[in-house]
Specification:
Pathway: Protein modification; protein glycosylation
Distance between the termini: 102 Å
Low-confidence stretches: none
Mean pLDDT: 87
Family: Belongs to the TMTC family.
Structural class: mainly alpha
Largest sheet: 2 strands, antiparallel
Number of strands: 2
Main location: endoplasmic reticulum
Strand order of the largest sheet: 1-2
InterPro entries: O-mannosyl-transferase_TMTC (IPR052346), TMTC_DUF1736 (IPR013618), TPR-like_helical_dom_sf (IPR011990), TPR_rpt (IPR019734)
Helix content: 55-70%
Keywords: Endoplasmic reticulum, Membrane, Repeat, TPR repeat, Transferase, Transmembrane, Transmembrane helix
Length: about 700
């Protein structure tokens, strides 16, 4: 297709660079913005998605990533978030394998590299959306908007709202989804290389396949089909939506449906629709038990009984998302738990913001549909398409989401904002020629401010301490912010300071905060208060296995053995693979002399967790005390196969052999235990006792 060169592109206050130079500059800007996160820690959600996710471990079967959700829970579980992103988890697993463990630098570097690649590809995406897919006589691709596409890509590369996706390792899902989203769109465009009236079905199927890959990185990938359809309608078929709608409504002139059929548009839209329907059906089947369940504190607006209030608050959330794109200064890792109070009456002044948002959107829509300038119509329409369509899965329109605002979901939508902003700069440059220097200064200032803010924000994402502290000034009402600050203080040993933040966090009945307050109170020997805090946590979250586990530990410390066993049994009923609860039951029954019951519990646990070496170790100790030496030996050896470098396991196996009379084997495992841990309690004394016994045996034999 051939379109006239954009009249406003050469007015944009940027130097005209060649394709290679513009890509290198864009990649460099993207790198500068987020490179200081490369040696950051695992922070916030990284602990669940990476550190505690067994699917990353090479010892876990690779097939598990296709059965479990993003966080490592089985998709069939009612507690699963149903976030099915196996390809993202696969990249985490590769990072783990290459680094030889959980070393965050490789994870961070790949995220930064992905953002650089995506920013560079945005030049091609923007060039097509602004100026169309144009080729010279030799088939080489041309750009009719080199400056506009370059500027929009720079805005995208440097936007601070991307920090969560780039500096937070779990943001890998958004990055991979965006990458395959772009590739799906670019492959769809390749279907029309033969001219307007010819298209390749093979390339269209390739685009749908890449859409499926994007969905396997994050669910948002499905929205690329909507962008592809919009491109086909507006750019390939050059339909004027306003005129077409006017013709259909006025009936003064019948729409040329036959022309649409001959152009192949209806066939292509049918392919996109069928492909999208199949992918959505497959995704629904994978979820198994239906959509995930969220609590009121995760998304309070979705629980409002009044439909009007629900709609008003949803629109208020949209306005806050728009504000983050316009002014990304107030950024926070979490916006739930009271951070954004609900609008509950018409007198609430915040109603002004959704009204303003819709006025601005309606103005843009009017210009996109009714402007006499075809370039303006096309650019603004695609800007709105990119802004709105990728955001739809997070809009609460189709299903309830588990957050109020999430900066990561704006990663793709920000591309639409950047396209509109680049057009605004070009429009002003074209019509305010006398102020060109001022516009150039303003544009460069905006880019520099974005780069500086992105660098500052990625610095805050380097550690949990700085990340959580940065949120206190943005969301002082957010219980989760106070909870995480308190937990970070507690982890660093500052228990008394942690109590203050936990008490602030429990205001909105935040179960995790109550549990962690109980943990801190327990460590401070305030046992009665700790018990009450644990029960408060369970009151607000009925199915809370970790809280029952901690409650059991409290009862064990107080020698309330029956209560401890009941609490741990509750934990294993709610979460059958709760290894710590099973193991503590075995140990407590062992310590109280209930060896037969301890044996039954240990064997029951190993039916659920057949490769848990800690339970094998505890059960082996129980069997040894019952003089079931052969069976005990089997569990010790199996535990050492799984984890051969546990000094206590070698030491206890040596004691077993010592009692059993297998003194040479006992000597070997005592020595292995002391080699691994020279200060192992009791091992050296037992070893010396064994050596005296062996010396006595040798003298007797001699």
């Amino acid at each position: 297709m051939v379109l006239s060169e954009l009249y406003w592109d050469h007015h944009i206050p940027l130097p005209k660079l060649g394709p290679l130079q513009s890509r290198l500059v864009t990649a460099f800007v993207a790198l500068v913005c987020f490179i200081n996160s490369y040696d950051g820690d695992f922070v916030f959600d990284d602990s669940e998605a990476i550190i505690n996710n067994k699917d990353l471990n090479p010892d876990t079967p690779l097939s598990n990533i296709w059965k479990n959700d993003f966080w490592g829970s089985n998709l069939s579980s009612n507690s699963s978030h149903k976030s099915y992103r196996p390809l993202t988890v696969l990249t985490f697993r590769i990072n783990y394998l290459l680094a030889g463990g959980l070393h965050p630098i490789g994870f961070h570097m790949l995220n930064v590299a992905l953002h650089c690649v995506i920013s560079v590809l945005m030049i091609d995406v923007f060039a097509i959306l602004i100026g169309g897919l144009v080729h010279d006589g030799r088939g080489a691709k041309l750009s009719l908007s080199p400056k506009a596409s370059f500027l929009a890509a720079l805005f995208f590369a440097s936007h601070p709202v991307h920090t969560e996706s780039v500096a937070g390792i779990v943001g890998r899902a958004d990055l991979l989804c965006a990458l395959f989203f772009q590739l799906s769109f670019l492959v769809y465009c390749k279907a029309f290389q033969g001219g307007d009236k010819k298209f390749s079905v093979l390339w269209i199927f390739g685009s749908i396949l890449l859409c499926a890959v994007a969905m396997l990185c994050k669910e948002q990938g499905i929205t690329v089909l909507g962008v592809n359809a919009a491109y086909d309608i507006l750019m390939v078929c050059n339909l004027n939506i306003y005129e077409l709608a006017h013709q259909l409504l006025s009936r003064r002139k019948s729409a040329d449906i036959g022309g649409l059929v001959r152009s192949g548009l209806l066939m292509r839209l049918a392919l996109l629709f069928l492909g999208g329907s199949f992918l959505l059906y497959a995704r629904w089947r994978i979820m198994g038990t239906g959509p995930p369940s969220f609590t009121e504190v995760d998304n309070p607006a979705s629980f409002a009984e009044n439909v009007i209030l629900r709609i008003v608050n949803y629109n208020y959330y949209y306005s806050l998302n728009a504000w983050l794109l316009l002014c990304p200064w107030w950024l926070c890792f979490d916006w739930s738990m009271g951070c954004v109070p609900l609008i509950k009456s018409a007198t609430d002044w915040r109603i002004f913001w959704p009204l303003l948002l819709w006025c601005c959107l309606m103005g843009l829509v009017y210009q996109a549909l009714c402007s006499q300038d075809s370039n303006k119509r096309r650019t603004l329409t695609f800007g709105l398409v990119l802004l709105v369509i990728p955001f739809l899965p997070a809009s609460n329109l189709f299903f309830r989401v588990g957050f109020v605002i999430a900066e990561r979901v704006l990663y793709l939508s920000s591309a639409g904002y950047c396209l509109i902003l680049a057009y605004a700069v070009g429009f002003c440059s074209c019509h305010w020629k006398k102020h060109k220097r001022l516009l150039r200064a303003a544009t460069l200032t905006l880019l520099c401010v974005n780069v500086a803010r992105s660098a500052q924000r990625s610095q805050q994402w380097r550690s949990e301490q700085s990340l959580f502290a940065s949120a206190l000034s943005v969301c002082p009402l957010n219980a989760k912010v106070h909870y995480n600050v308190g937990k970070n203080l507690a982890d660093r040993g500052n228990q008394s300071a942690a109590v203050k933040y936990y008490r602030e966090a429990v205001r909105p009945d935040f179960a995790a905060a109550w549990m962690n307050l109980g943990i801190v109170q327990n460590s401070l020997k305030k046992f009665d208060k700790a018990e009450q805090s644990y029960w408060n946590a369970i009151r607000f979250r009925k199915k809370y296995p970790d809280c029952y586990y901690n409650l059991g530990r409290l009862y064990a410390d107080l020698n309330r053995s029956i209560d401890a066993l009941n609490a741990w049994r509750n934990a294993t009923m709610l979460k059958p693979d709760h290894s710590l609860a099973w193991n503590n039951m075995v140990i407590l029954l062992d310590n109280t002399g209930n060896l037969a019951q301890a044996e039954l519990i240990g064997k029951e646990a190993l039916k659920i967790l057949p490769k848990d070496h800690t339970i094998m170790f505890s059960l082996a100790n129980v069997l040894g005390k019952q003089e079931k030496y052969k069976e005990s030996e089997g569990f010790f050896l199996n535990a050492l196969k799984i984890n051969p470098n546990v000094a206590s396991c070698h030491g206890n196996l040596a004691v077993l052999y010592h009692r059993w009379g297998k003194l040479d084997l006992a000597k070997r495992h005592y020595e292995l235990s002391l080699r691994l841990d020279p200060s192992a309690p009791g091992t050296k004394e037992n070893y010396n006792m064994l050596k005296r016994k062996l010396e006595l045996r040798q003298r007797t034999v001699g």
